[in-house]
Amino acid sequence: MLRAERSEKGNGRVYHIYFTATDNQVTGGSCSGSVNIGVPDTMKSGQSAVDDGQLYDSTLP
User: Fold this and answer.
1) Cα–Cα distance between 48 and 3 in angstroms, integer?
2) pTM over 0.70
3) Can you tell me whether residue 17 is helix, strand or coil?
4) Nearest one of 16, 14, 15, 10 to 41, comparing CA atoms
5) pLDDT tens across 13-34, in order?
6) Exposure string over 24-50, b if 16+ CB within 10 A, otherwise e
7) Nearest in space to 12 (alpha carbons), one of 54, 36, 47, 56
8) Rounded to an integer, what distance in angstroms lies between the CA atom of residue 47 and that of residue 8?
9) Who's near 43: CB < 8 A, 6+ residues apart?
């Protein structure tokens, strides 16, 4: 899940999502990829989120 709330303070949010899918069958194939999702601070046309870099690492306990 991604946070959907918006705040007109700041410059929006950018999520960097990395994934790996593995086939546990005989072939054992796998693939990986990434996607970036921007959530602008407002719904105004032409607005985009600014990527300020990583603020949180969700792979750590």
Assistant:
1) 16
2) no
3) strand
4) 10
5) 888 888 999 988 877 889 999 9
6) eeeeeeeeeeeeeeeebbeeeeeeebe
7) 47
8) 12
9) 6
